[in-house]
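Key idea: predict the complex, not the pieces.
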Amino acid sequence: MNNTAIKIENLSKEYYLGEVGTGTLSHDLNRWWARVRGKEDPYSRVGAVNDNANNKKPDYIWALKDINLEIQEGDVFGIIGKNGAGKSTLLKIISRITAPTTGSVKAKGRIASLLEVGTGMHPELTGRENIYLNGAILGMKQHEIKSRFDDIVDFSGCNLFVDTPIKRYSTGMRVRLGFAVAAFLDAEILIVDEVLAVGDDEFQKRAMGKMNEITRSGERTLLFVSHNLAAVRRLCKKGILLVDGKIKIHSMMDKVIDEYKGKETAGTNTIINHDLLKYSQINGFEIIDIEISNKNNSTTIHSGDDVVIKIKYHATRKFTSPAFVIQIKDEVEQEIIRLSNMPISGFVIDGLFNNGLITLQIDSLPLVKGRYFVNIGLVHEKVEWYFKLENVIDLFVEGKDVYNSGIELDRTRGLIWVKHQWHHQEKITNAPD
Amino acid sequence: MSNQSDTTWNLVISPRRSLFDIRFREIWEYRDLLYLFVKRDIVIVYKQTIFGPIWYFVQPLLTMVVYIVVFGNIARIPTDGIPPPVFYLAGIVMWNYFNECFMQNSDVFHKNSALFGKIYFPRIIMPLSKVISGLIQFLIQSALFTAVLIWYLYKGVDLQPGAAIALIPYLVLLMAGLGMGAGLIFSALTAKYRDLKFLVTFGVQLLMYATPVIYPMSIIPEKYKVFIAWNPMAHIIEGFKYAVLGVGEISLNSMLYATAVTVIILAIGIIIFNKTEQTFADTV
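Result:
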């Protein structure tokens, strides 16, 4: 039988907007006086919820409003939503960093929250001293840390530097050390917020693996907040979508993500985010324009179209052996296609100078109907990013009956389509037994 | 499952806690953190410095020399017949501890905002750790003072440390409570209005002159003594000087007064600290 690990009742959190310290003393006094007389709080506006689209902002906003939620023991619970929807506020209340305005949270078991990796580590202290300090800050006893010390060091991969002050560590090493300490916490309830957004690919894989391992035992409850929908989908069974401080949907994670995407996919047109082009301005180089169209110069792209991506650039100095990288991802950040002139496609560009145009043509686009995101980046010969324009193209692929069977393919029938033939041969003589 | 009684919850988070909410059991649970914070404060002093912990001695000795020159030789403020070095050093060592407790806690929120904004632990651990690491500094400096005192006794100077030495732990406790309480009261203000930190630094310096650190209580004219008597630190410092040097004005009433003020200031400080701690994360 399942037991409730966390029970949230009528939880609300109100924030004051604007300058702290101008006129707030009188507000505080007014509120206090109202409370003394048993009157309603004069500054909270009933029904004024956090509405980002509303231009007329109230002075006090509800970051969370009437949240009711029960999380079962052993659940891996995902919380998603736009920035400002109240995800972090909810985690901060459950982690006891800030107090709610009304309502309550009840929990069974130790809560450990990981809103940041390596909180409280001191640059002057050694790796060893910091493991103890950080562990204690996270709520571990010294003997607990001692018994896990070797595992922590092994997991972090910092064995050689354990007696070196961490100010000499690279950022990556500090992150690994911080995560390693947290990974060996044995709290019953673990709260994780976007910590996987830091560190390199290898670290992220390791961290995800560890989180999987922690949750697989089914004894621990995990609350996970992330913008990485792929990670949330992989890790969480159930979850909620927060919109403007309220729970929009509480269901199985797949359903919650679908709801979230449905809201996001307001437009069904391919859009180039020209605002992002400014990030391509590096010393002596910039992308002036990006275009995407099919062979007929239409910007409406269908499955199976021959698609052309054009990158116009301007360079004031010579860039030798550049590599343009184009990644196409789906809505859950799964990379489907990666192309780069070097080394993937083996197309050498001698150098970039003055004004130029890079054209990439993809014949018969293998993507099915749906929304995709395109990253465009430039890498120099030492295989490091000059820049990477994330989601610079918001690509909407229209469906098409690519197989001439009367069916328009979409994501329910696989990620991509391929040219193929079926054959059937009857009455073959040398049939294998 | 719905009839699960509330007693099974071991954590309840609700909006408003009572004013005087110190959960001693929880603080005890976090004693390892307290120890590690103290250790950190002490260890940091050693790291990447030439003299390391020698600074604990250099600061009071240099201050002593300055006081001897300025207040002793130039201003000619009497020292109750006590050799100036030992007289000033007694005041400096005592005042340093109060100053440390007060200053370290007066901007505890501002200085730890990154930590307080990311992780929960009983917040009172942080002020307590400052009081304890200050105490270790005080003990080290007391050893210096004791050495100087013994040297003068050996030379046959007429100093009379008495049975009142037994009072010293109590005086130290009062100082810690007073410094921490006063610091916590200001911590709420500096959390909201950062510039108050300058006022605090300035204020604590002025307070030192309203305390018999560089002068003995005995030279103060009766009509001004009333004002200085308001200052609980005056009684604590006088008590200390009486215990170790045999001079100073101390009475049962003055000790009771200092104790009462300390308890009140500490209580107010903790109430304010608890209140600020709950909403602090929203204002940084």
